[in-house]
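Pasting as-is:
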Amino acid sequence: MSTTRWKDTKTPDLDTAIDLLTREVANDTPPANLIWKNWSLTKAFQENQNIVLNGQDITFNVIKYSFDQATLTDAEERIVKKDGFIIAYFNGISVNYIINQNSIALKLLRKLLSYTGRNELEKNSYTFSNNFFVWLIN
C-alpha cells in the first residue's frame, strides 16, 4: 500500500476540511468512460484527536471512504470497489492530508473537497539525495 501526502493551501482549519471531506458527494455522470459513484464517507472519531509529535501539537481525524469505480464500455459496465482512508491533520500552520492512494490521490481529494481551481493542493513529499539511500542500505 502506498500513501501520499498533500498540503491544503485553501482550507484554513481542520473542522472545515473535515466538513468538506464528509459531506455528500455527487456521482459522476456519463459520458465519461470512468465513473465514481455510490460514495460512503465516515469519520473514524466523533471528536478530533490531538497528539504531540516531536514537540509539535497535531490535531487530526481519519476519514474512511469507499466508492464504486465503474468502467463503461459499449457492451457492459465493469465495477471495481475502491476504499481507503484519509488522515486530515492540522500542524498549527496548515491543513494536510495523508491518503492511501497514489495515482488517483489528487483527483480524489479535489473531488471530495470540491476544488476546481489550481494549486489548492500541493504534493508534500520529501526528496532524498542518492547519498542518503547509499547510507540507508549500508
